[in-house]
Amino acid sequence: MKAIAQAMPKSIATVLTSNECQLHAKPVQLMMIDGHEVCPKCQLQKENEAFEQSLQNEILEREAKKKKNTLYMRSVFADETIRNASFGGFYAECEEEAKNKELAIQAFKHYKSGKTFTTLLQGDTGVGKSHLAMSILRNLNEKLDVECVFVSVREMMSKIRDSFDNKESKYTQLYFVELLSRVDYLCLDDLGAETGAITTNKTASNFTLEVLTAILEARQTKSTIITSNLSRNQMEGMYDKKLISRSLKNIAVIKFEKTRDKRVVAFDLTQEV
Fold it and tell me: Is pTM beyond 0.70 here?
């Protein structure tokens, strides 16, 4: 009893009473604390529980923040301007762009409602595929308690190969397979560019196929966004047909056929220096 009383905050005025608390193995004498008769043992237990709950809440908040930061801290971009892409920053210059922006917004809404499917953004270089894909991820990251990541396939394969000779690199095959398999929403950006197959008709190397197979097979029950210059038939020719068929079995296609390459902008040499 004395030890319990001593454990109470010094600023609290305490006076022992003649009553006892019967909730414990041995009765505990009650105390008047700031005008209220309480059991000091029960009071300490409440304070300990409150502290533990506060600690647990702090841990949960850190975990939630860690999840949110995955998109910005662990994504791999070929074009760093994509990092800040948003629906608001996508300016439609033609009817097709406006339609595809709305389709991307609809894809986000379906993902938000809990549906699982693959979104394939198809079209030439520079039409805005990656911008819309990152916009979907950003909105999911902000609106839901989920973990998202955006990865350029070409940059990922380059980093993995670099790790063979650089033992200090964290970007190993295991690192990417674990990360991309785990996250709730993934964008594989510019699928096909890692082989140069768009211009040379090469098929994916066994190593590339091994990495992508491990990732895509692990994501059979998760939603994935893919951007590519390739058609589905070209993907099946480049990679394993069964793998592509399984990965794209439930697919929504957003296709760019008429949109111009927005990255090609004429520089005016006559402007003031």
Answer: yes
